[in-house]
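hey can u run this one w/ zinc ion bound, need the structure tokens asap thx
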Amino acid sequence: MPHHSNTISVIKLKCPKCHQGDLFLNKNTYQYKGFFDMPNNCSKCNQDFLIEPGFYYGAMYSSYAITIIINVTVFLILGLFLEYNIGLFLTIDLFVLLITMPYVFKVSRAIWLAIMVKYDPKAILKYEQKT
Ligand SMILES: [Zn+2]
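ok here u go:
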């Protein structure tokens, strides 16, 4: 089971190993330029962020899961306030998906990396001792 602080580090798009380094160079999720850029290594603990070629293809699984959660959430919230209407649902759902897409993309990578890389509270210390 994911540790509580693991969840926080995923949401904040931090390195899964040290929970401090940033996974993305551009911290503004809604700025298009440099949107996909990740450093090769964590700036704090030197964790490899690329792991292997095509590593982040696996992130599409977490992205798919999050998209389903968003769809269901939109569906349920609409149901609380409005009569169900498929056209309205699709319109609002599409809008919500478009707005959340950049973050979903990033957080999917963060989840995928966190599945593969375990948290090490001493990661930064170890790296600093080596350099
Ligand atoms: Zn790190």
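The mean pLDDT is 89. anyway lmk if its weird
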